[in-house]
Design a protein that fits this description.
This is 3-methyladenine DNA glycosylase. The protein is α+β, with helices and mostly antiparallel strands. It has one domain. A four-stranded mixed sheet has the order 1-2-4-3. Strand 3 and strand 4 form a beta hairpin. The protein is elongated and about 70 Å long. It starts with 16 loop residues before the first strand and ends with a helix.
Length: 311
């Protein structure tokens, strides 16, 4: 789901876009209902103490808690008119005045972008430089999700990350898939989990320092990480945009694991058999679609970064 213009960063003139109290309540309510629906299954499993090999990643690898995702913020350049007060996390807001559509002066609260820039400016600039560099590159679509295979290469069965789930081709079959392909993983946070034996097989040597140089828009993990960059800039990013990035990360995670060496059919996930021509074609088609969705969200995040950096 892409909420489009509802979550954009505000007017380019630098003035405040006045959001009436009733419109604010509607946006907050829609956001809460949407996030509640996205989180319902996870929260139910958490209450019952049931692990999930696919979706738990969104709440373990990423540090944003469900309650934080549920919070709504309007983003920069928006005046929340009326006496409703600032959203949760009100320490980032200040009182301000603006002009509504009928030319009347109204008072309310707005994100204090100068204070935000003072305290979070280094993060804003890093995210801006990373996302801008990725957005300017062509997408590489030939990795076939082999990073997950390289993470279990030549490991004993009890040493894999998801030991409760069997390998679809067994250990030897998994190793043969790795050895019969050219691996070109550009994302450090995937590469760092490769086994010692798999690292020399990768054509690239990504590091944290080379992330801006190497991340590219076809990479599933780079696109999932739009969620991380969105919430790291919260409350400077509109709540709807953070939720859009979360939903993209959730959908990508499903493909990531369906194309992995794990057999997840008991959990309702049919494999994308990337060891076959048909599986490779299906993976690339899905990867291309995710790259397009991510490109739209990356542009919106860059617009927010530009407004925050301007402060």
């Amino acid at each position: 789901m892409d909420t489009g213009t509802a979550a954009k960063a505000g007017p380019p003139s630098g003035g405040l876009d006045v959001l009436a109290a009733d419109t604010r309540r509607e946006r907050e309510q829609r956001h809460h209902e949407r996030v509640d629906a996205l989180l319902a299954a996870h929260l139910d499993r958490r209450r019952r103490g049931v692990a999930h090999p696919v979706e738990d990643f969104l709440f373990t690898y990423y540090s944003h808690r469900p309650a934080q995702l549920r919070r709504w913020h309007p983003g920069p350049g928006v005046l929340l008119a009326g006496d409703g007060g600032p959203p949760s996390g009100g320490g980032w807001y200040r009182e301000a005045a603006g002009t509504d559509a009928e030319g009347r002066t109204v008072r309310g609260h707005t994100l204090d972008v100068r204070s935000f820039a003072d305290r979070r400016g280094a993060t804003v600039e890093f995210v801006r430089s990373l996302l801008g560099a990725v957005q300017r590159r062509p997408a590489h679509l030939g990795c076939f999700g082999l990073h997950e295979w390289a993470m279990v290469y030549r490991l004993p069965p009890d040493g894999v990350r998801h030991a409760q789930v069997s390998l679809r081709l067994g250990s030897e079959g998994t190793d043969r898939v790795v050895e019969s392909h050219r691996i070109r993983c550009s994302h450090f946070d995937a590469f760092r989990f490769f086994t010692d034996e798999a690292r020399p097989l990768n054509r690239l040597r990504p590091t944290r320092e080379s992330q801006v140089e190497l991340d590219q828009p076809g990479c599933l993990h780079a696109n999932m990480d739009l969620y991380k960059w969105a919430y790291k800039l919260s409350p400077g990013v509109p709540g709807e945009l953070v939720a859009d990035c979360f939903e993209l990360a959730r959908d990508i995670r499903e493909l990531d694991m369906r194309a992995s060496p794990y057999d997840l059919r008991d959990h309702g996930y049919e494999p994308v058999a990337i060891e076959t021509p048909e599986g490779k074609a299906a993976y690339v088609e899905a990867q291309r679609g995710f790259a397009e969705r991510a490109g739209t969200l990356r542009t919106r995040l860059l617009e927010v970064c530009d407004r925050l950096a301007a402060a």
